[in-house]
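re: ur question from the group chat, yeah i did fold both. here u go
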Amino acid sequence: MIDNQILVGAQRQAELEAAKAAFFASGGQAVELAGFTYKPLPFRRHPEPAQKIPKGVQQGARQQRSKERAALIAEMAKTMTCREVSQKLGIPQNTLWTMSQREDFTFAPGCQGKRKTPYTDAAADAKLAERITALRDVGLTRHQVEKRIGIGNGTLVRILEAFQIDFPKRGERREASSREAS
């Protein structure tokens, strides 16, 4: 197939050479045309931008209410946290924070980490203490008691400390039994 393409190309080349020779024999001359010259686009003239006129601050009823509200929130912020003010007034916390930055006041700090005053019920804790002592006497471990009652380790430790229940950890129990055997 390549041979056929070579033959066809050679045949076309021969026809072109014959046409050139006939053109020059009849008195034709080759004319060299000018190439393409680049002409850049014309410069565009844009009008100067108009200066924006700043709007004056309106001192209307709305601005007065906003200042009164900011003063109320600043007064509440002295004794309350941002979350407490948000819940009391129904305003989002991020709005309160931006207002505090704009009006230059700070909120009372909240407790970080664990709750300082845990929400506990004395009667419910007493019932849990009875159940814990009963399950301890049966021979369950601390982990088994937690799973059986459905409480966490923190709650178990809190009740053990509050009611002074002796519920040794697994390692402490082994040490006590090994001392008795000796």
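okk and heres the other one u asked abt
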Amino acid sequence: MDKVNLVSGAENLDVKEPGDSALQPEEIVVQPKHVPSLESIPITPHPKLDDHTPETRQEDSIRNVRESVESKMSLGTAFPPYLSRDSVGNSSRTPADSGNPFQVGPDGRKRVVVLGSGDFGLALTGRLVQADYNVVVASRNPNRTRERVTMCGGSVVTLGEGLRKEESGVVVVAIPPQHHSSLPINLLAGKILIDVSNRKPDKNDPNRHSQAEALQTLVPGAKVVKALNVLSAYALSHGVRGTKEVPVCGDDEGARRVVCGMVRALGFDPVDQGRLSKAREVEGIPFRFFPSWRFAFTVSLVVWSLAFLITVYEWDVCDNLVNLSKGNNTMDWSGFKSVASSNFSISCGCTALTLLSLCYLPGVLSFVMAGILGVASLPSVSATMTWREFNFIQSRLGWFTLVLALAHVIFHGWAQLINFNLPCYLPSIGQLVVVVPLVTVILKIPLLLPCVDSALTNIRQGYERVSVKPVV
């Protein structure tokens, strides 16, 4: 009802001209709504206005929009810069340009040329096709290998056609090193050559020049990168569970980034090893034979040998020594018949038990010591303890535990400890295990004497025997 009256009453309004004094100072001027372009709006300091006025809100809104757009636009283009697929930190695809060594095939995929149609070359071709690459296999006899290459998803051409400039700037050299010299050197210049070869076992010398360095010397105008030599044809064709690190090395940093992106696209983890001289170590990786297991194997062999010698000595040799000591010159060799069965199997059991105990013993000892120190180090516990109590937990409790264990062994095996009759010339286990703890306790006793203890206490408190004059 009110809206009708307002609308109908609007006809009776006396609209004055802009110059009429009746409109002063509350003049109402209706202007058409027009939003200027972003470039035409000057950004100048304006006087302090009320935050709730329409002029302030409109100007602040335009300023925010303009600054937001300008911050997202790079100079000369309206698109943000993209990250290359071949960068070490990214695996997204990028279109080919003047800075991209990959050529683009008719299907829009990046093209890679593989020299060689052997088992490794075909397996790598299939893996590259699965990674969305256009693979061209350059072969000396394309007709003979065309069927196998086609089954892998690639195309086969002659050697000269595959190395043309318009084919690709990335070439995988998957032929034996002795045939590198037969390649057309002039067609390889300016390309990225990925050497996947390995040395022969009899030539595995890390001080010699690597095959990748020899290829770089043969083609000085190319960018040789050593990679993929730690993979086998089986791993490429069947895949590996989890991830596998693939070393990559080369003198050109950009070429290394390209190959790292390619390795990552194949589903492996590239490891940048730096200069091409590192290829000497990389080519020796396939010849490593359990380098981390050498120490463990040595310890196992020593434990087994000791167990085997002890069992043979106690069960077979000791009885004969006793007979000889009694004047009986006869030797009984019947016990040696079970050396291959009983002694061998028992030695294996003793070795397994000892190694298993050694695996868990450090953890148990660490848990006990960490538990004692951890409880004593709790703020709620250490805050309620005096220095004497804290010192007892951290220092004296360990000695008390050692003395208690030593006393247990001494009293439990006293009869064996004082028995020095060694018919087999071997002390008992109780006599052997008590030596180190007993020596430790004996060496600790002089430190507990009052004269020595007081001197050590003074040293801990900063006492100096030689008087030093203070520097003025």
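fwiw on the second one: The chain has a mean pLDDT of 74. The radius of gyration is 43 Å. idk if thats what u expected
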